[in-house]
Every structure is written in C-alpha cells, then in structure tokens.
C-alpha cells in the first residue's frame, strides 16, 4: 500500500505577512493577485508547498521570490484551514510573518507582482482570510516584541532612541514616556552608542546607536520586558 486509503487529498500553501518600518509607520507588503479566483485584488504573498520542500523552505522561497532577500527574520504563525477558505479548491495555508528593513531593501522588490507597501492601519481589503492572518500576525508581533528584541530587525544599521520609540509606538498604536522608554532600552545593554548625531529632526540632535550583534544574538530569546502589559496600552 503506497497511500492512505479512503482519504481526501488537499493542497498545502504558505502565506507570508511581511512587515516593514519606514521611520513613521509600520507597513505591510501586499501584491496584486495574478490569477483566479480574486485576480487583481490585494493579497499576501503566498505559494503552494512543493513535494520536495518543507514548510520553512516554501516560506523562505516565497519571501525571496518577492523581495530578493535571504536570511531575514521569519516565524511560523499558525495554520488556517477552514474548508471553504479558498473557493477554488480545498487548501490548508500555514502563515509566516517576516520583518525586514524597508529602507535597505525596497529597491530589490521585484515588479513582477506589482507589490506595494501600505501602512498597516490603512491596508486595503484582502482576499480570502488574509486579513485574519494579518490580525493574528500583528497580535503575535506585539506579544513577542514586549519581551524580546525582535523589532530591531525592522531598523537600519544605525538608529536613534527616538526612532526606536516611534517604531514601538507604531507597533502598539500607543504612546510611551520618553525617559522611561530610553532607560529601559539602554538597560538591556544591547546598544552601542556612536559618536555622530542625527540632526535632521532637531538642532540638538540625537546620538546614533548600533546593535551589539554578539549580545543581541545571546539575548534574543531572553525575557527583557520591553513593554509591560502590552494588551492594555492606551
């Protein structure tokens, strides 16, 4: 016997929720779907898992095909398996979310899929259950970022504390006290202060910082408590 008997076959796909940060807004990378059903409508980037690849390999391939990127932060979210989620054929989708530096890689995004960045709060209507995937990814991002330093994946190589605070406020859609935020971030020991300042936004300027890559790797899964009670911010 080479197959399980009396079982219905179904397709398995991956969908990627790709977040970026432009210095002001948390953004979502979307494409115009190129085939039916829902051709021409906004969609997450996805694809079917091939017989010779794992879920992770399929997600990485999908991400690279759209952005040209390898080695970016990507995490499996959850599976979406409603029987009628895809009107064409029974399809189970495993969602992943990825974090990329939008400024460094925006020129590498292929034109093949007519991809565009949208502020997360102004994203257009999406096909199928993709909006549910985005909502789930946003909740996971907020949870993980409250205790782990993964939001640094969205920043350029050097950044200021005010820029980092803007990122956190965009992710949580909430304000943070400037002094408390700076103190908490610097207390992690992850940042290396630079000599130069960013002066475009103020005459006094703010010092640039870089990540200490060694400490960042060592502490990535440590409980750093960046945000207390992230579910009750205002």
TrEMBL record:
<feature type="domain" description="Nudix hydrolase">
    <location>
        <begin position="9"/>
        <end position="140"/>
    </location>
</feature>
<dbReference type="Pfam" id="PF21906">
    <property type="entry name" value="WHD_NrtR"/>
</dbReference>
<dbReference type="InterPro" id="IPR036388">
    <property type="entry name" value="WH-like_DNA-bd_sf"/>
</dbReference>
<dbReference type="InterPro" id="IPR000086">
    <property type="entry name" value="NUDIX_hydrolase_dom"/>
</dbReference>
<dbReference type="InterPro" id="IPR054105">
    <property type="entry name" value="WHD_NrtR"/>
</dbReference>
<protein>
    <submittedName>
        <fullName>NUDIX domain-containing protein</fullName>
    </submittedName>
</protein>
<dbReference type="InterPro" id="IPR036390">
    <property type="entry name" value="WH_DNA-bd_sf"/>
</dbReference>
<dbReference type="InterPro" id="IPR015797">
    <property type="entry name" value="NUDIX_hydrolase-like_dom_sf"/>
</dbReference>
<dbReference type="Pfam" id="PF00293">
    <property type="entry name" value="NUDIX"/>
</dbReference>
